[in-house]
C-alpha cells in the first residue's frame, strides 16, 4: 500500500494519443504485403496505433540535471494494416527529456524500451510443410511472438488550461527479437502522433517555466 501511495504522489501526467504512419520497405515488409511476393520498394501504410502513457516525477538529482526529466510507463496497441502482419501490444518504459520549455510550448525527447507481443509471426502464417521456404503465405519479418520494442519520439506539447494540453509528435519505432529466432528482419515504423495530455502535478510543467 505504501509503494502505491508513493507512486500516486509522484504522478506527473497522463497522455492518450492516436498514431498513424508507415513501415519502411526494408526487412521484406514490401514483399510480404505484395500480391506476388515481389519486392516493390514501397512503404507499407497505414499503420495505426493507440497509446496511453503515465509520467512520474521522482525528486532525483540526475533527472533534475536533465532539465527536470520524468520517467514513465506506456502501452501501445498497433494495427499493422495487413492480415499477414497482424497486430501488436507493446508495453514500455521511457524517459521524457524536455529540450525547450516555456509557458506556451515544450519540445522534448521521449526515448524508451519495452516488449512487443505480435499476433502474426512466421510460424503461425506459414503453410504446413513450407517452413523456411521463401513463400508468399507467411510473415517473413517476425519470427517470434515476443520481441523487443524501441519507441524513440520527438514531441511538442502545447499547454491550454487547467493542466490540459495538446501533444504533437513524430517517432521511429522498431520491433524485432534481436535475431534470437529466425526469420527476424523486424519492423521499422515511422509515425506521427496527436494526443491529449493532462498534467496532474505541475511542479515540472511548462506552466511554471
Question: What this model shows, in words?
Answer:
The chain is mainly beta. The chain is built from three helices and eight strands, in the order αβαβαββββββ. Strands 1-2-3-4-5-6-7-8 form an eight-stranded antiparallel barrel. The longest helix is centred in the first third of the chain and has 9 residues, at about 1-10. The protein is elongated. The mean pLDDT is about 85.
Map the helices and strands.
Blueprint lengths: L1 H9 E13 L5 H5 L10 E13 L4 H5 L4 E10 L7 E15 L4 E13 L27 E16 L2 E13 L10 E13 L10
Antiparallel strand pairs: 1-2, 1-8, 2-3, 3-4, 4-5, 5-6, 6-7, 7-8
What percentage of amino acids are in beta strands?
A: over 45%
Q: How would you classify the helix and strand content by structural class? A: mainly beta
Shape: elongated
* CA gyration radius, whole angstroms: 19 Å
How is the largest sheet built, in terms of strand order?
1-2-3-4-5-6-7-8
Distance between the termini: 34 Å
Uncertain segments = none
Helix coverage percent: under 10%
What's the helix count?
3
Number of β-strand runs: 8
Overall mean confidence score, pLDDT: 87
Largest sheet: 8 strands, antiparallel, barrel
Strand/helix succession:
HEHEHEEEEEE
